[in-house]
Amino acid sequence: MRTYERTHPWLTFDVDLRRAPAKLWIMLGECQSKCEHISWAPLLPETQKRLHQLYLAKGSLATTAIEGNTLSEKEVLLHLEKKLKLPPSKKYLAQEVQNIVDACNEILAKVETGEELHLSSEGTEAFNRQALRDLELDNDVMPGEIRRHSVGVSRYKAPPHKDCDFLLAKLCDWLNGPTFAPAGSTRIVSAVIKAVLAHLYLAWIHPFGDGNGRTARLVEFQILISSGVPAPAAHLLSNHYNLTRTEYYRQLDKASRSGGDVVSFLLYGVQGFLDGLRNQLDELRSQQWQVVWRDYVWRSFRERRSPSDERRRQLVFALSRSADPVPLSKLDELDPRLTKAYAGRTSKTLSRDVNALVSMGLVVKSKGKVRARKEAILGFLPVGTTAHETWREVMGEGDREKE
Length: 403
Known about the structure:
Layout: H1 3-7, H2 22-39, H3 45-65, H4 73-80, H5 91-112, H6 121-131, E1 152-153, E2 156-157, H7 164-176, H8 187-205, H9 212-225, H10 236-243, H11 245-257, H12 263-300, H13 307-320, E3 326-327, H14 336-341, H15 347-359, E4 363-366, E5 369-372, H16 387-395
Antiparallel strand pairs: 1-2, 3-5, 4-5
Helix pairs in contact: 2-8, 2-12, 3-4, 3-5, 3-10, 5-9, 6-9, 7-8, 8-9, 8-12, 10-12, 11-12, 13-15
């Protein structure tokens, strides 16, 4: 008997989900569906680039922030653009983030070339080496090498260091084995379960002297990205753990104290992943809605090219950037171009323009206020759904994208 079997009996490398609540399977099915929707969402190249950078920043920051990195999301985005300037005392913060960015990009590059990625002790050690690269560490921490001393986090004491080599190898064999082999069309479902449990077990084993959390999140990212999860979505679990840090540590502790019952931690992780997917899909839907709406407005004015038509088109686009109806008297203040277009004209001109746009089906006027009729391009809203409220929910409060 190895020492860990006596001190950490919950490290069973086994999972029985036959009694897992229906909620878990429903959420996992929705995760798979939403990942597929995100994968096939048509986006403009500049939007793709922006969202990729945004979620890379969120994911790399979350991976390091949960272990103490204090950079903001804005600072990480500036760092990715090579525009961040930090004093010498804070440069290590950028290095921590860059290490994760480089590791994620390396994983992406391997997947894009068709390389089949399997988990291994050597690969996990390489992740730890990347996560700790060029950082100042305690003398007993060797990047990429199994620890040779006892460690603990809060009241949790990790397994004996003499068992770590064995435990890491056993974990990789388990994760690569038949337990997590995808069945038919459930590849992403299997990957999400596998990623969450890989993270949990690496947190339990704590095989390295430092950077265990970062290493676990890189393993998690590799599992998701190599299983068909779109790149922006593959960062969502890390972001969830960071945003719910107190609950994250509570769930880790609860899982070990329950004798290795992983269902609660799975529910916590999958719920956070699903919430992130929903938000991400809303953002993609918002982008698509704006593109289709712009095209619809331009087509509506295709045969209308007079100065008054130009003014009315500008008015529609200005209204499209407002989440709420705008008083008729404030319409010419929505945009500097509108202010200039209506300068020296009477309120009757503005009223005529609004009525013309109402006739074209592009705006709605009610109780002295006007809004863009963006729901006009939604063909299949559920019966009884308030179209304008749906638009506000999807577009968000006060969308400000320029037309």
